[in-house]
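Question: Now follow the chain.
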Amino acid sequence: MGKNGKFQYVYIPADVSEPLQELSLSYTEEDQVQCLLHKLREHFRQSKPAKTAEQLQRQRQQLLANVPEESRAQINEQMLGVATDLGTVESIALLSNSRDNGFTGVNLYCDDEASFVDALPNPRASEIAFCCGKQMQVQGDAFLARVFDNEDDFERLDFTLKEVTSSAPWVKEAAAQNEAKRKGDQADTILQSMQAPAQQGKQSSPAEVTELTPAEAARESGNAAFKKGDLQKALELYTEAVEQDRSMAAAYSNRALVNLKLGQAAAAEADANQALQLDPKMVKALLRRAAARKALGQTEGAVEDYRAAMKLQPNNKEAAQALQDLQASKELSQ
């Protein structure tokens, strides 16, 4: 197998107003195993804010807690500094590669430091994990990718956007696999504690694979159309999503972006207004309303929105640059 090539994988942003994306990555025979981890490590390094002193202290305490007590005296500040600056990618096997499935697995990749930087919850990644039988709360951006690995050979395989659905065959296979593993683990526990009460081995209800609602399905299809550059189709699908569910702030925000791309600033402002009524802290909606107001000549309103976005996300480069440009333009016109 080990040859040069390219594979597809999927990006699941923590920000639910951002669409899922199908990405591709080229590899060589030498870096096929590590290429994705290197790419994702760089993504996480660039996308998260610098850790606060409190977050660093919390991370150091956890690192020390994992070191045997007799060895802690050998750990100095420099070593701790290096450890907290490494930035690692956590790989979670949603579908493990085994003989039964031809040694083909699907992994969820997350930022190992997400909890230390108080990253946003990722509801879409958490839902996919839950549908696979993994009850976990994913934080920060996440990625999905497929691999072939039989311990002798390793190959990156394509994982596409259309497979990110609760009804996908791989999800059902993962749910069955993880349920079987859970039952096996419970059986081992029962055998090891035969004298314990019978209730100790009681099984919990298996995770159910839930389908997307019609509104969610329309929004995800709109995201795919937008990614392909079919703005009119994306507009129709986002409209379908909000007609199905008037409380879906992300669909209004995404439709605002499409309206901006189509030069329909007034419609974009109206959609952003609706999104912000539903979720006043949605930064993407603030940025899109600001852009619409700027296009409509409402400079003061645009400045107000950019400032509100920066209050919520002080490190938001888009808001900072736009605010700087607007203020410079205002000074020149005086």
